[in-house]
UniProtKB/TrEMBL annotation:
Gene3D superfamilies: Globins (1.10.490.10). Belongs to the truncated hemoglobin family. Group II subfamily. It comes from Aciduricibacillus chroicocephali. Signal peptide: none annotated. InterPro entries: GlbO/GLB3-like (IPR044203), Globin-like_sf (IPR009050), Globin/Proto (IPR012292), Hemoglobin_trunc (IPR001486). It holds the Pfam family Bac_globin. This is Globin. Keywords: Heme, Iron, Metal-binding, Transport.
Length: 125
């Protein structure tokens, strides 16, 4: 058995998610590039993001247990995700990661994975 821990555990697990997700959606909810594609009430979106991010970072498979396979690109097709919105999303997430005190080398690794995912999500020039 490996002694390796997941990124989720390395950054502090649920305690960090409890800081990261609210910090992220506080920014999303006021970002002019993002508000057009998000609902006014971000409660349910934040709950789903919490489950997804937990699973994405190697924690418990909360998202899949409730909602099935993430199918991120497919689930996001109804929303125009432009390069500007991709950058805005990453800007909000990076600031939230700072606020949640995610330290190096985990910060850079996590941001790299999220950046690759964000690029994959773009569906509008």
């Amino acid at each position: 058995m490996s002694d390796a821990i997941s990124l989720y555990e390395a950054i502090g697990g649920a305690a960090t998610m409890d800081k990261l997700i609210p910090a992220f959606y506080e920014r999303v909810g006021s970002h002019p590039a993002l508000t057009p594609i998000f609902p006014e009430d971000l409660t349910e979106v934040a709950r789903k993001q919490y489950m997804f991010m937990t699973q994405f970072l190697g924690g418990p498979p909360l998202y899949s247990e409730e909602r099935g396979h993430p199918r991120l690109r497919r689930r996001h097709l109804p929303f125009e995700i432009t390069p500007e919105r991709k950058d805005a999303w990453l800007e909000c997430m990076k600031a939230a990661m700072d606020e949640a005190d995610i330290e190096e080398p985990h910060f850079s690794f996590m941001l790299e994975r999220l950046t690759m995912t964000a690029h994959h999500m773009m569906n509008t020039p």
